[in-house]
Structures are given as C-alpha cells and as structure tokens.
Amino acid sequence: MATKVTIWNEFRHEKTKDAVKKLYPEGMHKVIGDALAKTGDFEITLAALDDPEHGLTEEVLANTDTLVWWGHCAHGEVKEEIVDRVQQRVLEGMGLVVLHSGHFSKIFRRMLGTNCSLKWREVAERERLWNLAPSHPITEGIGEYIELPNTEMYGERFDIPEPDKLIFVSWFEGGEVFRSGCVFERGNGRIFYFRPGHETYPIFYNEQVLKVIANSCKWCAQTVKISTVNAPHCPEPLEKIEEKDIVFGSAGISQTADKL
Fold this sequence. Notes:
Distance between the termini: 63 Å
CATH superfamily: Class I glutamine amidotransferase (GATase) domain
Helix content: 10-25%
Largest sheet: 9 strands, mixed
Shape: globular
Number of strands: 11
Strand order of the largest sheet: 2-1-3-4-9-8-7-5-6
Structural class: alpha/beta
Number of domains: 1
Radius of gyration: 22 Å
CATH class: Alpha Beta
C-alpha cells in the first residue's frame, strides 16, 4: 500500500526571487513530490501557505501518513489553529519530516519545546553529511556520506533536545559541524529533521537527498492512530474494587475517622 505523503511548502521564495523561480518554477514541494511519486511507493498531496487553511484541512491531515514541512521567511504567518491541528495528528501517530529552515517553524519548535536556534552562513560552501546510522531504515541505500558542493552552512550549537537517534552529522568547508539528521518520538508519532535544502541551491534534485527524504517518509509514516482528545480521564475500573473502612487524609495517609 502506498504511503500517503503531504508535502507542505511556504511557496513564497519561488514567486518572489528570480533565482529560486528558475530552480523551482513550480515550487520545491512539486520537485520533491514528483521524485517521490516516480518510485511508485507514495501517494502525494501538495499544500502551501496561501492555500485555504494552509492546505492542511482536517480531511487532508486525516489522510496523511507523513507530513513533510519546508518553511523559511513566513513562519509567523502560520495560524496557531493549524499548528494545533498538526500537533494533534503527530501525537496520534502521523509522521513529520522537517526540512532545512523548517527547524524554526512553529510546529517543529512546538513539538521539541525549545527555541531551535543555530548559527548560519551563506557562502556556497561544501558540505559532507556523515552517515552515523548505516543500518537505520532512513539511510537505506546511502553510503558512508553525502557530499553537496554548494550549501548554506548551519552550525552548532543547535538548540534542540537530545535526539532519540542521531542519523547524520555535517561538516562544512568553513569548519563548522551540525547535527543534520535527527529522530524524535512525540506521543505516537515519529519526527525526522533533515538539514539540506536551501532554496537557492539545487539540493532537492540530488538523488541521495531525495532518497533520504523518501526513506524518512516511509519510516515516519503512521502505523497507529491513537487519539487522546476525548479519552476519559477518570475511567471505570476494569476489576471490582473492594470497599474499605479506612479513611485517607489529603496526603494519602490512612487515618481513623474520629481523628478527622
């Protein structure tokens, strides 16, 4: 069965910057979606910031196994009710793959509970992403490292919680290093942060980068859907509880009735 993937993109740079429009005339999300669709393993939905409800309606999210997120210049325009909606779906079991500058998105910071700040520099330097987890499903088909000739540098310290699993570490030509592939679990959902993907470089045409994205969409995909929104907070006991004569005080300490 095909994995249902929704690819979300601000889709602003492609409309306002000539260099980005030349690289991704129909949007970065379209390039990623087309590459994933060619494998035959995915059912693709595209969504963008300026779509009604940002393209992330209840119906769309209900039919999404993994949500891919790319944002950069308009994080603040994402409505809080949509962030709430996405968060709830991740807690229920939907996967979330966050790309590049999506590290500063509302949803990523919400899920991680930290500022997610970092160092950055844009001078088209070389990047080498070292594969630290060659047996992990996310790195299937990936060699010892991925090398990108021109990228934007992201450097430590990256203000995130300790990842549940560190998949890639990047080295940059200028000397910095960065945790570029990080796995987290939140509620019943899996999250993968993958650093490559600046809008002015053709990184989303790189076959190895696309392979990692495809692998992560499969690995993060929802396997269960467990909602706690309407779950009873004071459930009836499964077994009969015997009546007791002991009276407990507010501290949970048993006391005789005449002392209360």
